[in-house]
Amino acid sequence: MEENKYNLTKEDFVSDQMVKWCPGCGDHAILASLEKIMPQLGKRKEDILIISGIGCSSRSPYYINTYGFHSIHGRALPIATGAKITNPNLSVWVTTGDGDCLAIGGNHFIHTLRRNMDIKIVLYNNQIYGLTKGQYSPTTPLGKITKTSPMGTIEEPFNPGELAIGAGTTFFARSLDSNLKTQSEVMLAAAAHKGTAFIEILQNCMIYNNGAYAYYNDKENREDRVICLEQGKPMIFGKNKNMGIHLCNDQNKLEIGTIGENGFSIDDVLIHDAHQNNRGVHLMLAEMKPPFPLAVGVIRDIDKPVYSELMENQIIEAKAKSKIKCVDDLLNSGNTWEVE
């Protein structure tokens, strides 16, 4: 990223539109973080594009003072792809929800990750369809009673991080909506990443799924239940900072150890490396659930060729080899004749 050479502030990115989210909704915190990091992108406001689909999260383009596009359900990513290919200088951000992105938009999601388009995806995951009044979504926990599952859901939910890493994402990060510091940090890391950057934010819906992440937000216990990963640092967590994550001897399973007990020391704790192309470890971190802590922060951040640049290189090569350099060359190519 470049420095703030245009002297923009957070206030420059606050739109004049009334924010029509419910009081207490986690979307407000996500919006505040987006407005905060926008001046740090090193872009003019007109060189930043926010695209959304349909849902509560998808009202974001109205609330951030940049160019925006409120598209149709599940189709934000192909529109973002087209915008980035057409104008590579744009910083393209997609705001989407667990229903919009992972249900009707699921096919576009996995292929955007597979192609490594240079766009940033912010997934507001509240485990419910909020705008359409409380139906279960692809991330709703098994057995959850909702408007469309009055006896409890019978579908296993997606783990968005697991899905993304499996689809080949080059960047995956996670944050809780209540953790503004981590939220801003992962957004800035996503902006600096060249390629598709996918951020999952665990967001609370006050009306239809209140308390979905209460287990992790509980002030008394969250230090034991959440681990904030930092590049190059040991995976230590807990109120006393004495719990560590390590790989089993077979290297295919994570375990928790208490430092100073049973021969387990700080040297046994796994060092976080988001940049190493180790899909297995990144996947295990994304999948952790109780009794393991929730992993937040940048989990995966690797280098890989970017789709739009590869395509541009092919176009340049094709132009160099072609005899047709302009429209006149095309019109005069092949068999031509004159009508008198």
Write the layout of secondary structure elements.
Elements lengths: L26 H11 L10 E5 L7 H4 L3 E4 L5 H11 L4 E7 H7 L1 H10 L4 E6 L34 H7 L4 E6 L3 H13 L4 E6 L11 H4 L4 H4 E3 L7 E2 L5 E5 L6 E5 L20 H9 L6 E8 L5 H15 L5 H5 L9
Parallel strand pairs: 1-2, 1-3, 3-4, 4-6, 5-6, 7-11
Antiparallel strand pairs: 5-11, 8-9, 9-10
Helix pairs in contact: 1-7, 4-5, 6-10
The SS-based structural class is alpha/beta
Please state the second-level CATH architecture of the domain at 10-212.
3-Layer(aba) Sandwich
Q: Give the total of beta strands.
A: 11
Instruction: Choose one word for the global shape.
Output: globular
Using the coordinates above, name the CATH class of the domain at 10-212: Alpha Beta
The amount of helix comes to: 25-40%
User: Average pLDDT across residues?
Assistant: 95
Helix and strand run: HEHEHEHHEHEHEHHEEEEHEHH
CATH superfamily of the domain at 10-212: Thiamin diphosphate (ThDP)-binding fold, Pyr/PP domains
Strand content: 15-25%
| Helix count, DSSP H or I runs of 4 or more residues | 12
Strand ordering within the main sheet: 2-1-3-4-6-5-11-7
Give the low-confidence spans. Answer: none
Using only C-alpha atoms, the radius of gyration works out to 23 Å
- Main β-sheet: number of strands, strand sense, barrel status? 8 strands, mixed
